[in-house]
Amino acid sequence: MTKTKFVASSLIRSMMEPRLPDWIEPHWYVTKEEALELAPLAEIGWFDMYDKKDMAAIITAATNLKWLNSIYAGVDGMPLAELKKRGTKVTNGAGINAITIAEYVVMGMLNMAKGYREVVRAQERHEWLMDSPGKVELYGSKALLLGYGAIGKLIEERLKPFNVDVTVVRRTPGPFSLAPDAWQARLGEFDWVILAVPATPETEEMIGADELAEMKQSAVLVNIARGSVVDQDALVQALRDKQIGGAFLDVTTPEPLPADHPLWDLDNCQISMHLSGRAQDKMFVRSAERFLENLKRYHKGEKLEPLVNLDLGY
Protein backbone atom coordinates (compact mmCIF):
# COMPACT_ATOMS: atom_id res chain seq x y z
CA MET A 1 0.00 0.00 0.00
CA THR A 2 1.30 3.44 -0.95
CA LYS A 3 1.47 5.59 2.13
CA THR A 4 0.61 9.27 2.41
CA LYS A 5 3.68 11.35 3.19
CA PHE A 6 3.30 13.76 6.09
CA VAL A 7 5.97 16.35 6.93
CA ALA A 8 5.96 18.22 10.24
CA SER A 9 8.16 19.68 12.95
CA SER A 10 9.89 17.43 15.46
CA LEU A 11 8.37 19.62 18.18
CA ILE A 12 5.14 17.65 17.88
CA ARG A 13 6.68 14.27 17.12
CA SER A 14 6.38 12.75 20.59
CA MET A 15 2.66 13.46 20.89
CA MET A 16 1.81 12.66 17.27
CA GLU A 17 3.90 9.73 16.05
CA PRO A 18 2.43 7.01 18.29
CA ARG A 19 -1.09 8.00 17.21
CA LEU A 20 -0.63 8.25 13.45
CA PRO A 21 -2.51 5.65 11.39
CA ASP A 22 -0.55 3.09 9.40
CA TRP A 23 -1.42 4.75 6.07
CA ILE A 24 0.70 7.77 7.04
CA GLU A 25 4.46 7.95 6.41
CA PRO A 26 5.79 10.70 8.70
CA HIS A 27 8.90 12.79 8.08
CA TRP A 28 10.14 15.14 10.81
CA TYR A 29 12.31 18.21 10.50
CA VAL A 30 14.28 20.17 13.06
CA THR A 31 15.73 23.04 11.02
CA LYS A 32 14.27 25.16 8.22
CA GLU A 33 16.88 23.63 5.90
CA GLU A 34 15.53 20.16 6.67
CA ALA A 35 11.99 21.43 6.16
CA LEU A 36 12.91 22.82 2.73
CA GLU A 37 14.50 19.52 1.78
CA LEU A 38 11.49 17.46 2.91
CA ALA A 39 8.78 19.84 1.67
CA PRO A 40 8.49 18.44 -1.91
CA LEU A 41 7.64 15.00 -0.44
CA ALA A 42 4.64 16.23 1.51
CA GLU A 43 1.07 15.46 0.58
CA ILE A 44 0.15 16.67 4.06
CA GLY A 45 2.31 19.38 5.62
CA TRP A 46 2.52 21.21 8.93
CA PHE A 47 5.14 23.93 8.42
CA ASP A 48 4.61 26.45 11.21
CA MET A 49 7.57 28.75 11.78
CA TYR A 50 7.96 32.03 13.62
CA ASP A 51 9.57 33.64 10.59
CA LYS A 52 6.80 34.04 8.02
CA LYS A 53 9.23 34.37 5.13
CA ASP A 54 10.79 31.01 5.98
CA MET A 55 7.36 29.43 6.30
CA ALA A 56 6.23 30.86 2.96
CA ALA A 57 9.37 29.56 1.25
CA ILE A 58 8.84 26.06 2.63
CA ILE A 59 5.17 26.01 1.65
CA THR A 60 6.10 27.19 -1.85
CA ALA A 61 8.61 24.33 -2.08
CA ALA A 62 5.90 21.80 -1.12
CA THR A 63 4.71 21.33 -4.70
CA ASN A 64 2.81 18.09 -4.01
CA LEU A 65 0.89 19.49 -1.05
CA LYS A 66 -2.79 18.53 -0.88
CA TRP A 67 -3.44 19.69 2.68
CA LEU A 68 -1.60 22.30 4.73
CA ASN A 69 -2.29 22.43 8.45
CA SER A 70 -1.29 25.26 10.77
CA ILE A 71 -1.47 25.96 14.47
CA TYR A 72 -1.80 29.68 13.68
CA ALA A 73 -5.22 31.28 13.38
CA GLY A 74 -3.84 33.97 11.08
CA VAL A 75 -2.66 32.82 7.66
CA ASP A 76 -1.17 36.17 6.65
CA GLY A 77 2.26 35.59 5.20
CA MET A 78 1.31 32.30 3.58
CA PRO A 79 1.30 32.16 -0.26
CA LEU A 80 -2.50 31.90 -0.42
CA ALA A 81 -2.78 32.58 -4.15
CA GLU A 82 -0.30 29.79 -4.91
CA LEU A 83 -2.09 27.41 -2.55
CA LYS A 84 -5.41 28.18 -4.24
CA LYS A 85 -3.87 27.66 -7.68
CA ARG A 86 -2.61 24.23 -6.60
CA GLY A 87 -5.96 23.31 -5.04
CA THR A 88 -4.39 22.84 -1.61
CA LYS A 89 -6.76 22.71 1.34
CA VAL A 90 -5.67 24.78 4.35
CA THR A 91 -6.77 24.28 7.94
CA ASN A 92 -5.74 26.76 10.59
CA GLY A 93 -5.69 27.12 14.36
CA ALA A 94 -8.86 29.20 14.65
CA GLY A 95 -10.15 28.72 18.17
CA ILE A 96 -7.12 26.78 19.44
CA ASN A 97 -5.87 29.80 21.41
CA ALA A 98 -9.21 31.56 21.76
CA ILE A 99 -9.66 30.93 25.49
CA THR A 100 -6.30 32.27 26.58
CA ILE A 101 -6.41 35.23 24.16
CA ALA A 102 -9.87 36.22 25.44
CA GLU A 103 -8.53 36.02 28.99
CA TYR A 104 -5.60 38.20 27.95
CA VAL A 105 -8.00 40.86 26.69
CA VAL A 106 -9.76 40.98 30.05
CA MET A 107 -6.41 41.07 31.83
CA GLY A 108 -5.20 43.89 29.60
CA MET A 109 -8.36 45.92 30.14
CA LEU A 110 -8.13 45.48 33.91
CA ASN A 111 -4.43 46.38 33.88
CA MET A 112 -5.14 49.58 31.98
CA ALA A 113 -8.22 50.42 34.06
CA LYS A 114 -6.47 50.00 37.41
CA GLY A 115 -3.04 51.30 36.39
CA TYR A 116 -1.69 47.99 37.59
CA ARG A 117 1.70 48.38 35.91
CA GLU A 118 2.38 51.21 38.37
CA VAL A 119 1.43 48.92 41.25
CA VAL A 120 3.99 46.35 40.08
CA ARG A 121 6.63 49.06 39.71
CA ALA A 122 5.89 50.29 43.22
CA GLN A 123 6.39 46.78 44.57
CA GLU A 124 9.75 46.58 42.80
CA ARG A 125 10.71 49.84 44.54
CA HIS A 126 9.39 48.47 47.87
CA GLU A 127 7.05 51.47 47.96
CA TRP A 128 3.64 51.29 49.67
CA LEU A 129 1.15 53.24 47.55
CA MET A 130 -1.54 55.13 49.44
CA ASP A 131 -3.88 55.40 46.46
CA SER A 132 -4.67 53.45 43.31
CA PRO A 133 -2.94 54.71 40.15
CA GLY A 134 -6.03 53.69 38.16
CA LYS A 135 -9.65 54.29 39.11
CA VAL A 136 -11.58 53.12 36.03
CA GLU A 137 -14.20 50.39 36.45
CA LEU A 138 -15.09 48.01 33.67
CA TYR A 139 -18.63 48.01 35.08
CA GLY A 140 -20.95 49.98 32.81
CA SER A 141 -18.26 50.83 30.25
CA LYS A 142 -18.80 50.43 26.51
CA ALA A 143 -16.62 48.33 24.22
CA LEU A 144 -16.50 48.15 20.44
CA LEU A 145 -15.41 44.69 19.35
CA LEU A 146 -14.15 44.41 15.78
CA GLY A 147 -14.03 40.76 14.76
CA TYR A 148 -16.48 38.09 15.85
CA GLY A 149 -14.77 34.81 15.17
CA ALA A 150 -13.90 32.26 17.83
CA ILE A 151 -11.81 34.76 19.79
CA GLY A 152 -14.29 37.61 19.47
CA LYS A 153 -17.16 35.48 20.73
CA LEU A 154 -15.19 34.46 23.82
CA ILE A 155 -14.14 38.05 24.49
CA GLU A 156 -17.78 39.13 24.48
CA GLU A 157 -18.72 36.20 26.71
CA ARG A 158 -16.04 37.07 29.27
CA LEU A 159 -16.85 40.78 29.36
CA LYS A 160 -20.55 40.31 30.04
CA PRO A 161 -20.06 39.30 33.71
CA PHE A 162 -18.19 42.59 34.16
CA ASN A 163 -21.30 44.35 32.83
CA VAL A 164 -19.40 45.77 29.86
CA ASP A 165 -21.78 46.87 27.09
CA VAL A 166 -20.23 45.18 24.03
CA THR A 167 -21.09 46.27 20.49
CA VAL A 168 -19.88 43.84 17.85
CA VAL A 169 -18.81 44.59 14.28
CA ARG A 170 -19.39 41.72 11.89
CA ARG A 171 -19.92 41.08 8.19
CA THR A 172 -23.56 40.14 8.70
CA PRO A 173 -24.94 42.74 11.14
CA GLY A 174 -27.85 42.02 13.45
CA PRO A 175 -29.86 43.90 16.07
CA PHE A 176 -26.86 43.99 18.47
CA SER A 177 -24.04 44.42 15.95
CA LEU A 178 -22.76 46.90 13.40
CA ALA A 179 -21.94 46.48 9.72
CA PRO A 180 -18.31 46.86 8.56
CA ASP A 181 -19.10 50.32 7.17
CA ALA A 182 -20.95 51.63 10.24
CA TRP A 183 -18.53 51.54 13.17
CA GLN A 184 -16.28 54.49 12.31
CA ALA A 185 -19.11 56.97 12.75
CA ARG A 186 -19.74 55.70 16.29
CA LEU A 187 -16.17 55.46 17.59
CA GLY A 188 -16.71 58.36 19.98
CA GLU A 189 -19.22 56.31 22.00
CA PHE A 190 -16.81 53.68 23.29
CA ASP A 191 -14.42 53.37 26.22
CA TRP A 192 -12.66 50.36 24.68
CA VAL A 193 -11.91 49.55 21.04
CA ILE A 194 -10.91 45.88 20.78
CA LEU A 195 -9.36 44.49 17.59
CA ALA A 196 -9.84 40.78 16.96
CA VAL A 197 -9.98 40.79 13.16
CA PRO A 198 -7.94 38.64 10.77
CA ALA A 199 -5.05 40.29 8.95
CA THR A 200 -6.22 40.79 5.37
CA PRO A 201 -5.82 43.58 2.79
CA GLU A 202 -9.30 44.73 3.88
CA THR A 203 -8.27 45.18 7.54
CA GLU A 204 -4.79 46.65 6.98
CA GLU A 205 -4.44 49.89 8.98
CA MET A 206 -8.18 49.92 9.67
CA ILE A 207 -7.29 52.01 12.71
CA GLY A 208 -5.46 55.07 11.45
CA ALA A 209 -5.16 58.76 12.29
CA ASP A 210 -8.79 59.47 11.40
CA GLU A 211 -10.14 56.65 13.55
CA LEU A 212 -7.91 57.57 16.49
CA ALA A 213 -9.12 61.18 16.24
CA GLU A 214 -12.74 59.99 16.52
CA MET A 215 -12.13 57.96 19.69
CA LYS A 216 -12.82 59.28 23.18
CA GLN A 217 -9.85 61.01 24.78
CA SER A 218 -10.14 58.46 27.60
CA ALA A 219 -10.62 55.44 25.32
CA VAL A 220 -8.19 52.51 25.26
CA LEU A 221 -7.26 50.56 22.12
CA VAL A 222 -6.77 46.81 22.67
CA ASN A 223 -5.11 44.92 19.81
CA ILE A 224 -4.81 41.13 19.89
CA ALA A 225 -5.22 40.80 16.10
CA ARG A 226 -2.11 41.72 14.11
CA GLY A 227 0.09 44.79 14.19
CA SER A 228 -0.80 45.51 10.57
CA VAL A 229 -4.40 46.42 11.40
CA VAL A 230 -3.19 49.61 13.08
CA ASP A 231 -1.26 52.52 11.57
CA GLN A 232 1.45 52.28 14.20
CA ASP A 233 3.02 55.69 13.50
CA ALA A 234 -0.38 57.34 13.91
CA LEU A 235 -0.92 55.41 17.14
CA VAL A 236 2.43 56.55 18.56
CA GLN A 237 1.51 60.15 17.83
CA ALA A 238 -1.97 59.77 19.34
CA LEU A 239 -0.50 58.27 22.51
CA ARG A 240 2.18 60.97 22.76
CA ASP A 241 -0.44 63.70 22.36
CA LYS A 242 -2.78 61.99 24.86
CA GLN A 243 -5.35 61.99 22.07
CA ILE A 244 -6.60 58.65 23.45
CA GLY A 245 -6.33 57.20 26.93
CA GLY A 246 -3.97 54.37 26.10
CA ALA A 247 -3.26 51.16 24.24
CA PHE A 248 -2.79 47.54 25.23
CA LEU A 249 -0.90 45.86 22.40
CA ASP A 250 -0.28 42.15 22.22
CA VAL A 251 0.86 42.60 18.62
CA THR A 252 3.09 45.15 16.88
CA THR A 253 4.82 45.82 13.58
CA PRO A 254 7.41 44.42 13.31
CA GLU A 255 7.78 41.56 15.73
CA PRO A 256 9.91 41.48 17.76
CA LEU A 257 9.56 45.23 18.26
CA PRO A 258 12.99 46.90 17.99
CA ALA A 259 14.46 47.88 21.36
CA ASP A 260 14.63 51.55 20.36
CA HIS A 261 11.01 51.79 19.18
CA PRO A 262 9.09 54.66 20.84
CA LEU A 263 6.17 52.43 21.86
CA TRP A 264 8.30 50.86 24.60
CA ASP A 265 8.69 54.14 26.47
CA LEU A 266 5.12 55.43 26.39
CA ASP A 267 3.53 55.30 29.84
CA ASN A 268 0.04 54.99 28.33
CA CYS A 269 1.00 51.93 26.27
CA GLN A 270 1.43 48.36 27.48
CA ILE A 271 3.03 45.74 25.22
CA SER A 272 2.58 42.03 25.91
CA MET A 273 4.88 40.75 23.14
CA HIS A 274 2.39 38.49 21.33
CA LEU A 275 2.23 36.21 24.35
CA SER A 276 -1.57 35.95 24.58
CA GLY A 277 -1.83 32.73 22.58
CA ARG A 278 1.18 31.24 24.37
CA ALA A 279 -0.17 31.85 27.87
CA GLN A 280 -1.38 28.26 28.18
CA ASP A 281 -0.07 24.69 28.28
CA LYS A 282 -2.67 23.13 25.97
CA MET A 283 -1.90 24.71 22.60
CA PHE A 284 -0.02 21.76 21.09
CA VAL A 285 -2.35 19.21 22.69
CA ARG A 286 -5.43 20.91 21.24
CA SER A 287 -3.75 21.29 17.85
CA ALA A 288 -2.71 17.64 17.77
CA GLU A 289 -6.21 16.45 18.69
CA ARG A 290 -7.76 18.60 15.97
CA PHE A 291 -5.22 17.41 13.39
CA LEU A 292 -5.83 13.74 14.19
CA GLU A 293 -9.58 14.22 13.85
CA ASN A 294 -9.03 15.94 10.52
CA LEU A 295 -6.75 13.12 9.45
CA LYS A 296 -9.69 10.72 9.77
CA ARG A 297 -11.83 13.07 7.70
CA TYR A 298 -9.10 13.42 5.07
CA HIS A 299 -8.83 9.65 4.69
CA LYS A 300 -12.60 9.37 4.22
CA GLY A 301 -12.76 12.30 1.78
CA GLU A 302 -14.80 14.38 4.23
CA LYS A 303 -14.59 18.13 4.77
CA LEU A 304 -11.73 19.35 6.96
CA GLU A 305 -12.39 21.80 9.78
CA PRO A 306 -11.80 24.69 10.13
CA LEU A 307 -11.16 25.24 6.43
CA VAL A 308 -9.57 28.55 5.42
CA ASN A 309 -11.23 30.56 2.65
CA LEU A 310 -8.19 31.32 0.51
CA ASP A 311 -9.94 34.27 -1.15
CA LEU A 312 -10.86 35.95 2.13
CA GLY A 313 -7.68 34.95 3.95
CA TYR A 314 -9.34 33.43 7.03
Order of helices and strands: EHEHEHEHEHHEHEEEHEHEEH
Low-confidence stretches: none
Task: Look at the structure and give the CATH class of the largest domain.
Answer: Alpha Beta
Number of strands: 12
**Secondary-structure content class:** alpha/beta
- Work out the helix count: 10
Whole-Å distance between the termini?
35 Å
Residue-averaged pLDDT, rounded?
96
Overall radius of gyration: 21 Å
Helix content: 25-40%
> Considering the protein shown, what is the CATH homologous superfamily of the largest domain?
NAD(P)-binding Rossmann-like Domain
State the domain count: 2
Q: Main β-sheet, in a few words?
A: 7 strands, parallel
Outline the structure in words.
The protein is α/β, with parallel strands linked by helices and 314 residues long. The protein has helices at 13-16, 32-38, 52-61, 80-86, 98-114, 116-124, 150-159, 209-214, 232-240, 283-300; strands spanning 4-9, 24-29, 44-46, 67-69, 89-91, 142-146, 165-169, 177-178, 192-195, 220-223, 246-249, 269-271. The chain has ten helices and twelve strands. It has a seven-stranded parallel sheet, covered by helices on one side. A five-stranded parallel sheet has the order 2-1-3-4-5. α1 links the parallel β1 and β2. α5 packs across α7 (150-159). The longest helix is centred in the C-terminal third of the chain and has 18 residues, at 283-300. The two termini are 35 Å apart.
